[in-house]
Amino acid sequence: MNWKVLFKKRMFWLILLVIGSFYIIRNFIETQTYSVNKTVVWAFDVTNIFLINTFLLPISQIVSLIGYGVLALFRKETSLKLSVFHFCLLQFNLFFPFYYELLGFISIALNFLAIIIVFVQFFKAFKKEKTNS
User: Fold this and answer.
1) 22 within a domain of the structure (yes/no)
2) How do strand 43-44 and strand 36-37 relate by DSSP bridges?
3) Distance CA 8, CA 113 (A)
4) Side-chain half-sphere of 125: how many Cα atoms within 13 Å?
5) Are 91 and 22 in contact (CB under 8 A)?
6) Which end of the chain is less packed: N or C, by CB atoms within 10 Å?
7) Does some domain include residue 19?
8) What residue ranges are annotated as transmembrane (predicted)?
């Protein structure tokens, strides 16, 4: 199978493979611990990484899976350049969590960019059909 076909027609399966492998690896290598800070009684030592890991990253993953799943159901082709860029962006967001602590704003922007790319892919694929008809 040609790699272009993977990124143009089978993007849903690539995203599912990446997200699935991320959660399998994450279960074996979980390093963050959350505990009660004894010096300040009930103060938790959690920074803005909580917002990113708990809400924004899973939302961008769910939007990616649903968007590419709908495109796969309707057998639509996606843009090759946007698909490769989104795939690399998703891998960077998933497998390099060290930059969340250092560059919180950049990670939020990259997750929003991943969501925007899915919407652009979705509308571009359905618009292409209307112009061809």
Assistant:
1) no
2) antiparallel
3) 19
4) 25
5) no
6) C
7) no
8) 12-29, 49-71, 78-96, 102-123
Instruction: Identify the bridge partners of residue 119 per DSSP, sorted by sequence position.
Output: none
Provide the whole-model pTM: 0.73
Report the SS3 class of residue 76: coil
How many structural domains comprise the chain? 1
Rounded CA Rg of the chain: 18
3-state secondary structure of 49: helix
In a domain, 16, yes or no: no
The answer to whether residue 116 is domain-embedded is yes
- As a whole number of angstroms, the distance between CA 88 and CA 49 comes to 21
Q: What share of the chain is helix, strand, coil (3-state, %, to 5)?
A: 75, 5, 20
Q: What is the pLDDT of residues 1-53, one digit of tens each?
A: 687 887 888 888 888 888 888 877 777 776 655 555 555 555 554 455 666 66
Q: What Cα–Cα distance (Å) separates residue 121 from each residue in 25, 44, 85, 126? A: 28, 40, 11, 9
Helix (H) or strand (E) holding 133: none
E strand intervals along 17-100: 36-37, 43-44
Residues across the chain: 133
